[in-house]
Amino acid sequence: ATGLGQLAAAKGKYFGTALANNHLGESAYATVADREFNSVTPENEMKWDATEPSRGSFNYTGGDAIVSHAQAHGQSVRGHTLVWHSQLPSWVSNGGFNSSTLTSIMQNHISNVAGHYQGKLYAWDVVNEAFNDDGSRRQSVFQTTIGDSYIATAFQAARAADPSAKLYYNDYNIEGVNSKSTAVYNMVKAFKQQGVPIDGVGFQAHFILGQIPSDLQANLQRFADLGVDVALTEVDVRMQTPADSTKLATQSSNYNTLTKACLNVTRCVGITVWGVTDKYSWVPDVFSGYGAPLLFDDNYNSKPAYTGVSNAF
Ligand code: XIL
Fold this sequence. Notes:
Elements: H1 3-10, E1 14-19, H2 27-36, E2 39-42, H3 48-51, H4 61-72, E3 76-83, H5 90-93, H6 99-116, E4 123-128, H7 141-146, H8 150-161, E5 166-171, H9 179-194, E6 200-203, E7 206-208, H10 216-224, E8 229-240, H11 245-263, E9 268-273, H12 283-286, E10 290-291, H13 304-312
Parallel strand pairs: 1-2, 1-9, 2-3, 3-4, 4-5, 5-6, 6-8, 7-8, 8-9
Antiparallel strand pairs: 8-10
Helix pairs in contact: 6-8, 10-11, 11-13
């Protein structure tokens, strides 16, 4: 890559984007993605509903297309995600399985999917969003059926299936020091003590304009000090639409701050923004009234936020 990927590589890090297969046929989308980014995360293509839509029936079409595109353009790939309560087919969430059966289903899913991509991925988000904001465990079907141990079991299965992928726990609202991040911190600390194979923590970093936690860098550093890599994995900075020059300037400053936070932490390996262009961001679909969270506008013109990032390097 040239662009941000090259700037990051010069500092020993990567700068990535979420990539969606269904947009790769749009030449401007692919052009910007391949010019700017040296890492990609499939936005939806490796999730459980895509890879095992019915029990024991695996589909790698979308994920394979992302991987081959990435390989052709010198981009590393972060696999996303093996165990998550969302985009989980109802045959899993409503199957009424007991603990040992659901454990086998989860292990089988991980062994097949991570096994299929073995040796091709830089990292896996093994478990996604397992905690609530108050630090308690989210009551997903995995938690309520198997209990706390499902997370360690998932990491062990992932290590067995792909020994070369870095194994991450990934979540949102853990960017600053708070009840949720401290619960994750305590889990990671325990995993390191117990020998559970975890290599990194992904901080999604779905931020609101003007609300980057002031202790972002310190929080990344406290996790790094446990002996894991850290990464900003799904960055966007949403604003109430329409955008104006004042908001875009604040956004630029916010992107500058978050980029510097990663650059200042040796074990922060890279930053991934959650999409190439505002046009296809997930934000307006999920956060009513918000949008314009990324580095390129609807017409693929770079925004002030782009300069905020590049100036940080
Ligand atoms: C989002 C995708 O961007 C959307 O296209 C999809 O409809 C829903 O999921 N946290 C995650 C990501 O870990 O996988 C989510 O991606 C955004 C929130």
